[in-house]
Request: fold
Amino acid sequence: MRSVYRYGIVLMALLVSVSAFAGYAFNFPEPVTPIARETLHMHNLVMVVILVLFFLVLGLLVYSFITHRKSVGFKPANFSGPIGRKQWLWVLSPFALLFFIDYVVFGIPALHAVIMYEDTKTDAELVVKVTGSQWLWEYSYPAEGISFTSRLITPREQIDQGAAKGENYLLEVDNPLVLPVGKKVRFITTSNDVIHSWWVPAFGVKRDAVPGFLREFWATVEKTGTYRGQCSELCGKEHGFMPVVVNVVSQEEFAKWIASKKPVVAPVATSPLADGQKAVVAQAVK
Ligand SMILES: [Cu+2]
Reply:
């Protein structure tokens, strides 16, 4: 009876935790860039291998517990004297196996992925500079002379006063970043004040925006659509209120968008960066 009670408690705890996480997906979002896909493959490979190892080791343990019981008359081995060859084999073989898995089975694809992540320059067709500010994002296309800010537009009543939350609560902005589908985009990040981090889960990219430094990443988005993310480096009071929204459009639509933006917005001169920093950006963009 007591064990039934105990199982009841465990079951209830599980149900409560499941409902608490109902809004969260357990797996990665659908990958839409080569980096996101590579990351997902790496994750799946590691998961499969460690699950196989886990059940193998667990199975061996359970088997040993059951067959080597004193109650069934099992006589323990008597280890005395120098360690024999067979014992050394049992000590070294798990070590060798784990070494092989870590450095070969995981190591080679991981190295391949990291090299791919860092290759921001090969075939990049567009450069976008992302500047974090407390608490908005500024996007500029240096070659096109376009620059604009992107701020949260969720109404304050929804945040502070308990008004009904919209569909994209805290994940909606006035001017989303616009990118062409299927083109490799090289991103350069920096910040005006503190460290921020630009993150879009479906792209598989997250890069810190560090004041005084330029950091890079790239994305070739393969599917049109609207993608949402957030600042993911605690950057002050309104860290939770500087989302990232990216509209990925066809190449024709992108060309139209660029043309429509050009005459309205002044070129990079609106950037609050100091002249010295601008020179560095110009250098990096080349
Ligand atoms: Cu931030």
Q: What stands out?
A: Helices lie at 2-20, 34-67, 85-118, 156-160, 251-261, 275-285.
